[in-house]
Amino acid sequence: xxxxxxxxxxxxxxxxxxxxxxxxxxxxxxxxxxxxxxxxxxxxxxxxxxxxxxxxxxxxxxxxxxxxxxxxxxxxxxxxxxxxxxxxxxxxxxxxxxxxxxxxxxxxxxxxxxxxxxxxxxxxxxxxxxxxxxxxxxxxxxxxxxxxxxxxxxxxxxxxxxxxxxxxxxxxxxxxxxxxxxxxxxxxxxxxxxxxxxxxxxxxxxxxxxxxxxxxxxxxxxxxxxxxxxxxxxxx
Length: 236
Fold this sequence. Notes:
Blueprint: H1 3-32, E1 36-37, E2 42-48, H2 50-53, H3 64-76, E3 80-84, H4 92-104, E4 112-116, H5 119-122, H6 127-140, E5 146-148, H7 156-174, E6 179-181, H8 183-188, H9 194-197, H10 208-222, H11 226-235
Parallel strand pairs: 2-3, 2-4, 4-5, 5-6
Antiparallel strand pairs: 1-3
Helix pairs in contact: 3-10, 4-6, 6-7
């Protein structure tokens, strides 16, 4: 097979894999459309975009939301019920205008809230608008939420924008009572090879291995609060 033919086959296979990947959007939305897990213990609410939905994972349980929920069960010994209010394609403004309203409308009070947003804002990045959206988001989040800065983009045409967006969001979050998850730096520290080892076929969303990295970044901030989570649950 010639070089051109080989690249042609590779392009076709990649296109098929990406198409299959995006076919999962509706399935993930259906999965998370109702609470998952077990009531009677901790309530975990996830806000964000397609990464919070778990696009690129082999199944919802291996997304970072699924992994955090399981780690909460393992470390606290309590049931965990997950309300995943994220939506594929969401931007920071969507969390402010839609997802936080859904959070406030829940019939239960959350014990853990995670937020990962900004990846979609990087494409066509507008610093002024994103700074406003970030400030509004930080002001509206419930106290103690675990909020990541913007994911690191290994693809070179988005690296600078993701660096800038991450700085803008992190600065807004530090001014409020939120717990900033250093996802950007954790991802950057994985090296350039992570583009091929920790991403799905579109080189944009994480795969299972990548989501383990994301979950680890969040867990580094959640873990110190596990004793207080257990104590509050027992007292309620």
